[in-house]
Amino acid sequence: MRNALAGLLLAAGAFALFGWNEHRIVDRENALEALLDSAIPVRGDAIDDGLEGKLVLVQGPLRGSGPLRDGKVPYEATAVRLRRTVQMYQWETRVEKREETAPDGTKRTVESEIFTRVWSEEPIETSGRDASHANPEFPFETATFDAEAPRVGSYRVPAELVSAIDAWQAVPAVDAVAGRARLGRPVFAKGTYYFVGEDPDAPQVGDLRVAHQIVPEGITVSAIGKQAGHALAAFEFRGELIEPSLLEGEHGAREIYQAGPASSRPLAWVARVASVVLVCLAFFLLLGPFVRLRERQDVLGDLARAGAVLTSLVLGLSIPLVVAGAIWIAAGQYLGIGLVVLGVGILALGIRGRVAAGRARRPKIAA
Predict the structure, then answer these.
(1) What is the CA 100 to chain-centroid distance, rounded?
(2) 303 HSE (CA, 13 A, CB side)
(3) What mean pLDDT value characterizes the chain?
(4) Rounded CA separation 339/67 (Å)
(5) What is the pTM of this model?
(6) Is the separation of the CB atoms in 149 and 66 below 8 Å?
(7) Distance from C-alpha of 178 to C-alpha of 75, rounded to nearest angstrom
(8) What φ, ψ does residue 125 adopt, rounded to 5°?
């Protein structure tokens, strides 16, 4: 009984901590959504000095500070992103196994190494197996070049935001670019890639295929941030700095924020995890006396036989999820429905598994 009383007190404290923490998280989310909804839409082609320090939502064409250039195969583009993809013709090895029968009838497994040639963007290591099939090193590799001073209309945005845009467009290879390449080997324009080697129709190990893709200037994007001069900067919310976010297309402030870098709130998650651990421990203490029921041939007996530890884990995970879901639903957040369903599902699966395990352990009675 002493353990059961301790478990009851621990459960009360754990649920109080969990509920308090979850209420804080819900309150924060509601306040943040209200702040995002208050973001002021602005035209990207003009900056209103009266909005200095305000949270603004800007939509417009994304542009860089100048053309981007690949220094190896000298392609240049007016773009906000340029990607060079490099593939090399390489040896690839695989081991084949076959079974052979000796004259005396015994069988043995024989392994043979098969070498084939493939195009690959990644280096393939084969030199340790056969020196005659060693692959050369890449003379240069796949690389991405991003605009260093991007702008949405007249607003400067952090350069790292551009790396999240993946609206890539393939660039056809052209003879003029191939003719300017200085790689010490012939370069040919072949459709959407440049072939580096002697004969595009008969590639040799070590030959290259180089392709370019771009995210062109002028694509429409949406961004949120605090207006700081001619730039979008981090804005403060309850003592936390939230970095500006950018999303391709026309979107509202909530969508842009959700697609941006995740805001880290470690203390909230520490409290969540600590609460769940305490709830599991509390249920373990509460269920201790019921382990004596293992002789009973019913559902409660099955749960007892399955073990108080596993039962405590199921209850300690499912019930906090249901409680959290109820709190979110009460606050008008539909995310709570998913949490309740997940919690009930874990509880149902846990009970089903424990009952099945308990039945399997019952002694069979002969007819």
Answers:
(1) 48
(2) 19
(3) 84
(4) 49
(5) 0.70
(6) no
(7) 9
(8) -85, 115
